[in-house]
Amino acid sequence: MMLGLGVLSGCSDTVDAPDTFEYVALGDSFTAAGLPPASGTCRRSGQNYPHLLVSQNPQYVLVDVSCGGASSANMLETQQVEGDVQPPQLDAISDDTDLVTVGLGGNDFDVISKFLFQCIELAGEDPTGDPCRTRNDGSVEGRMDKIRDNLAEVLEEVGDRAPDARVLMVGYPRLVPDEGECPRQVPLASGDVDYVREMLSLLVEAQEGAADDAGVEYVDVYGPSKGHDMCSKHPWVNDVSDGPKGAYPFHPMPAHQRAVTDLIMEML
After folding, report:
1. Which of 32, 88, 171, 189 is the most exposed place for a label (fewest CB within 10 A)?
2. Which residues of 154-184 are buried (b: 16+ CB within 10 A; e: fewer)?
């Protein structure tokens, strides 16, 4: 987007402003991040990947409307957060928008809550079995096609509102390793570790599928995060504890936000 300053009063020369680039970040807590310094009830962090991306691209003008707890519905509807009302995130997009990143899906139908937080709560009932898989009884799997549709609709709406913008769907990272478990860091029942792996894989597939359906680019974070799960020595997502540098339990750490920034930069 070019901004012209026009003719200065008393001068004969025309001075043009440098090219600027409007970047709108949409998403949930994996975009907002909540890391300090974070502002407002949405916990948008100055350390999140939208801010890091802009720090490497000074010509970018950032509009970060990501918000913890946001679902696909909150792209077109308001979001209630601790008594505050957040406007629909898509309202931030206009014809002047040049780049949009979208990081969503896990709060649709509360699927991450059901296959992670609920599973941890249920682990005490049957620590060696799979109480969470049994409790959910296929309900999470049954939502994935609808989540894909929801995300595709959001991405298509972004394209309608900002037809000249580049649109990137940003995926989720790994949470648990491909093999094994770490009950101290992630206190799941032994039989539910595989369930968490499977459900996250399905959710990531829904994100990638939605990007394909809408004809936008997909930022794969799941693949590059191999070896950086919550059980690893260098995790990208915090475990059950209060993490270093203020990371919330089961939420992104600074390393995740830096990694996503690098992945986006490679694509741009």
Report:
1. 88
2. bbbebbebbeebbbbbbbbbbbbbeeebbee
Domain of 140 in residue numbering reads as 4-267
Beta-strand runs (E) in the chain: 4-7, 14-16, 21-27, 38-39, 44-45, 60-64, 79-81, 84-86, 99-103, 166-170, 217-219
Question: For 165-214, how does the pLDDT look when each residue is reduced to its tens digit (9 = 90+)?
Answer: 999 999 999 999 999 999 999 999 999 999 999 999 999 999 999 999 99
pLDDT for 18 equals 52
Burial of 6 (0-12, 13-18, 19+ CB in 10 A): exposed
- The single residue listed with the structure tokens 């957040």 is 86
Per-residue pLDDT tens digits for 40-76: 899 999 999 999 999 999 999 999 999 999 999 999 9
Q: What is the mean pLDDT of the chain?
A: 91
pTM: 0.90
Give the count of domains, the chain.
Answer: 1
Q: Say how far apart CA 68 and CA 216 lie, in whole Å.
A: 24
- Give, as one character, the DSSP assignment of residue 114: I
Buried b (16+ CB within 10 A) or exposed e, 107-130: bbbebbebbbebbbebbeeeeeeb
Give residues with Cβ within 8 angstroms of 156, minimum separation 6. Answer: 214
Inter-CA distances, 263 with 200, 227, 268, Å = 20, 16, 9
Q: How far apart are CA 111 and CA 172, in angstroms?
A: 13
Spatial CA neighbour of 186 closest among 96, 106, 117: 117
